[in-house]
Amino acid sequence: MTSFTVIAGLLLLFLFALPLLLGFLSGRAYRQGRGRVALGLFLFGGFVGLWARPRPLGLLLLLLGLLWGYGRRRL
To answer: Whole-angstrom Cα distance, residue 75 to residue 48?
Structure first.
């Protein structure tokens, strides 16, 4: 039986990784000219980033993912 702390730790890891991933995908979509998709991903990433505690860290991860996705070279 899995303990509660392991499940809570995985949920916390998911809440930290999701804004980073959504920011990355938003940056890639904006760079490819899909502005509405990028805006939707960015807004949902901001919403999830507000869930992560402490709040500035979730929003910082969102912006870091956005810069990472936008600054990446096209293949």
So the answer is: 29
